[in-house]
Request: fold
Amino acid sequence: MATQQSFKIVGGPSKFDLMLALFDRIHDNREITFTVRRTSYVSDAKRTVITGVDSEGGPEMWLFRGWYVLNNTQVSGFYDTNLRKGSISEEIS
Reply:
């Protein structure tokens, strides 16, 4: 059974970069990077491929789905492109 771990996103792409990650797939999957806060003192840069987004309450707020490039971990979350912050959940099997 898979479980989920959630973390804060403390930095990430602009709205334009998020759009390109979703729609510009001519050569391959386009990656974006979320800076994820794992503890009070440790942040990781997570290269992520976005597979889908849905609008969430405004023109700068998004629910997203995708996976980490490094280990193919499935992820989903909320991201505000204006603040460049949000939350991400990792599916751990």
